[in-house]
């Protein structure tokens, strides 16, 4: 049965226009159950306990990720199936910087699925202590309210770009991108 659901999802999504992201925000299917898919902390996708090895299938499914009432779904025009996400649905694995060290500096993040976001007002960066117990986790908004967790190497690069500021409120890291200053304490 779950193989039929996977095939159906793949067909529904494959028939869409070839674009960065399907318009999942325009679709209103009824919740039709759950599928035993888990997005693990390391960004790998599991189905019925086995690793989904086909990168094209993972990218396809990641393009129809949806968050609603704190639950993650795979959503097509015809189906909405709940899935499990261990920490965040996106893992930010790459970073690029344009105009580094200037007022026009722009930081671009890319997820392991190929999503690219410009750190700024639409895609803010913050530290969250609720994702992993007793750890501050750097998160950036990716899409539809879903967050991407910065890989350690990416966050280290952000720290190198930032400026440490000492203040009476406490020390923090100041990072500039797309005209927005982020204060990470």
UniProtKB/TrEMBL annotation:
Residues 22-86, 89-184 form the DUF1285 domain. InterPro entries: DUF1285, DUF1285_beta_roll_sf, DUF1285_C, DUF1285_N. Transmembrane segments: none annotated. This is DUF1285 domain-containing protein.
